[in-house]
Write a structure and sequence with these properties.
The chain is α/β, with parallel strands linked by helices. It contains ten helices and 20 strands.
Length: 449
């Protein structure tokens, strides 16, 4: 019998453009890339040069602090560019793919007869370690640590998020195998958070049914409600879609980075799921599938709350299973602006009459901020959408002041920027809350290490 976490605080933003449960074909990606900025907390050291031949699973770069953390090519082909920016910062390592993917092979033992150290070493060699994040600090897990527990999220409650039951319907064996491997890496428990009523229900883990509005599916909600993180403790978190990579490695002995991506949003003309490979270009997924003409469209790798604005020539985020297309909003002129009745406009505070149309109405929301930045207002508006046993306003003020003792007492060790995404959405002060949390975690990491 599974545990049940039911939350009431939160907010489901019912946007137009949900992905239909159909499979669509993706265009061929002309190149694939590893982008260091996708991985928080690493300093890249490039190990290849333009012109080198690589296989899927060949090392492209490592982390300078932990050289055993490898970042590998998702496809076989030729390294065509190592792009750098200011101060020679590595922006991307690009690979032009072969017609047929050739894989590096890895020696795999049965999980039951493998030690935790052997599994750890295999994940490092195959380049799958970067998909494991740790809390505190919400960054790529340090390979020299042992987690108290591991939390896997198989329920994404964000707006227009993909349904993991559909994504993994043909790979339940890989999911279970990946969880079995993770269980060997911790003396504690592996918790798998699933949507209430989910059809994929893995065995040999602590099942947690998550029920309620977003952010019910966040790892932070699970951690806070099950066993919070105290100073000196470390837990690991993974997205269930990334656990499939680990399962394939133990089932087939190769690093298979195939990924199913949901195409969503009001500006997407074709909505559904496409099978691709991690590191592909955005245009290989969206070409011919967005609204035609001169409409101003924002493409987002990820969801509208935590995703990254991208261009068609950019690459799919390392942890992303969703592409969202919404109106940019920079070509909109409104007569009298907020002074109009605002029929059809979305408002959390019920400033407009749209709330009378019911919760099932689908909304089209563009990317405008809709207001000016000002000082933080202590109005408890964050508390209404923040279901964790943490005082968000006080924690944010402690982060801004960088008061380490207060940050620790207020729960900094168990949060990530994504946990504050709804706070940022409803904030009347238009403060970049997620960036404040990210900066605070990075500063704390440098101070404590």
């Amino acid at each position: 019998m599974s545990n049940v976490i039911k939350i009431k605080k939160g907010l489901d933003i019912n946007l137009k453009g949900k992905a239909l449960e159909i499979e669509m074909k993706a265009a061929k990606s002309e190149s694939y890339a590893i982008v260091p900025d996708h991985y928080t907390g690493i300093t890249p050291k490039v190990t290849v040069h333009p012109g080198d031949r690589v296989k899927a699973g060949s090392v492209l770069m490592t982390d300078k602090r932990f050289p055993e953390i490898r970042f590998v090519s998702p496809v076989s082909g030729e390294v065509t560019a190592v792009r750098r920016g200011d101060k020679r910062k590595v922006l991307s390592i690009e690979v032009t793919p072969d017609e047929k993917i050739e894989y590096e092979s890895f020696q795999v033992k049965a999980i039951a007869s493998s030690s935790g150290e052997e599994i750890r070493e295999l994940l490092l060699q195959a380049g799958l370690w970067p998909y494991i994040k740790q809390r505190p600090y919400d960054r790529v897990a340090a390979p020299d640590t042992t987690p108290r527990d591991i939390f896997v999220t198989a329920f994404n409650s964000a707006p227009l998020a993909p349904d993991f039951d559909f994504v993994a319907r043909e790979e339940t064996d890989a999911f279970q195998t990946g969880l079995d491997a993770l269980a060997r890496l911790t003396p504690g428990k592996v918790y798998a958070g699933i949507k209430k009523g989910a059809t994929i229900r893995p065995q040999r883990v602590e099942l947690v049914e998550l029920d309620g509005p977003h952010p019910a599916g966040n790892a932070g909600v699970m951690i806070n409600h099950i066993r919070p993180v105290n100073r000196g403790e470390t837990v690991w978190t993974l997205n269930a879609a990334d656990v499939l990579f680990i399962g394939r490695l133990f089932l087939r002995g190769v690093a298979d980075f195939s990924r199913t991506v949901a195409l969503t949003g009001s500006e997407m003309t074709e909505r559904g799921y496409v099978k691709t490979i991690a590191g592909c270009t955005i245009q290989s997924l969206t070409k011919g599938r967005t609204m035609p003409g001169d409409r101003h469209i924002r493409l987002i790798s990820g969801n509208v709350l935590t995703g990254t604005k991208v261009e068609p020539s950019d690459y799919l985020g390392a942890y992303d299973n969703q592409i969202t297309a919404i109106p940019e909003g920079d070509d909109v002129d409104e007569f009298l602006g907020w002074g109009m009745p605002g029929f059809g406009k979305y408002s959390v505070s019920r400033s407009y009459f749209t709330w009378l149309t019911g919760k099932k109405r689908e909304h089209i929301i563009d990317a405008r901020i809709r207001g000016g930045r000002r000082a933080m207002i202590m109005s408890n508006e964050y508390d209404r959408v923040f279901p964790m046993d943490i005082l968000p306003e006080y924690l944010l003020k402690a982060i801004i002041a960088f008061d380490i003792e207060k940050m620790e007492n207020l729960g900094i060790y168990e949060v990530a920027p994504e946990d504050f995404a709804l706070c940022e959405f409803v904030d009347t002060s238009k403060i970049e809350i997620q960036q404040i949390v990210r900066n605070g975690l990075d500063l704390l990491y440098r101070e404590m290490n």
